Amino acid sequence: MKMSATTMNALELRQCGLDFDLQMTKHPMPVPQENQLLVAIEYVALNHLDARFARDGFSLWQYPHILGLDAVGTVIHAAKGVFPSQGSRVLFNVSLAEQGMLKEYAVVPNYAVSEVPEAVPSDIAVALPNAGMAALLAVEKLQLHEGQSLAINSAQGAVAHFAVQYAKLKGAQVFAVAQKEHHKRLTKLGADFAFDCDAENVCAQIKRELGPGGFDCIINTQGGQTVAEDLTRLRFSGHMACLNGFQDINTDLLFEKSPSIGVVSVEGAWLANSLCAQQHLRFMGEQLLSDVASGQIIPPEIKQVPFTADAVRDVLTMMVDKACPVRPVVKINR
């Protein structure tokens, strides 16, 4: 990590599209301003948002654009009195509207980073923010408490990996709907019941275990028409947390169920320019790191990926239409 360097490598997306047009380029070294940290990036996690928007584009992006919302690295410069200090290992999530972290160095606001404890390796830490924070926000919006029933659809993904565990810590009864190959892992994480989403009689199976009343709470990870489908399984005045938006919902169904529906958006903290929300990301990052360090939360499986255009392109292609608990993490070599 040479402070005398004037340029750094960055992996740019030249245009959106299914071919994921990536190219390694040189960029000027970033210069930190007041209350910013200069961080030498060690790992960057890739998630479904990176893949989806790399394919479809995002309204606030200009090309070329750098992907990568979650990163961990070492502070190599901090102004006097700015915390965390030089040498600290930090974890952070960044704004979807700005350039991402697939690069060697970055400047980040000091109030939005979480210090990584020695007990948590960097490649594990970087796999926590986006999915882990989404799960924490979902559980928070649901006002989940002991004895309630919670259903998670498309539970094979990384958000469900955390949501199952945090729901069990709240004392909830967890019903996970996912492909059969994921059932063993989900029950090991704490799910009380696992249903095969591909089975023709899945609705009948759920009713047999749950009874006629419906779920107290539901986490919908898919969005679209599945939200209306999930509403039919919700009890009257139940709570639902949606991670990917939803289509128009039939008014009769809304009157029948009288649901409380909350939208979960980790990136909303940045897009709304809310300092309080950005600091809340930091607190959630600290909670995730602490819970993993103490063994309360099992982190997702990771797969290390080289910092090359071809390797990242292959990962994005794999992730774009497939929810998967394995978190690809790009190791930034200098």
UniProtKB/TrEMBL annotation:
Domain Enoyl reductase (ER) positions: 17-316
What's the superkingdom here?
A: Bacteria
InterPro entries for this protein: ADH-like_C (IPR013149), ADH-like_N (IPR013154), ER (IPR020843), GroES-like_sf (IPR011032), NAD(P)-bd_dom_sf (IPR036291), Zn-ADH-like_protein (IPR051397)
Cite a single GO MF annotation: oxidoreductase activity
Please give the SMART domains that the UniProt record associates with this protein: PKS_ER (SM00829)
What is this protein's name? Answer: Oxidoreductase
What Pfam family is a match for this entry?
ADH_zinc_N
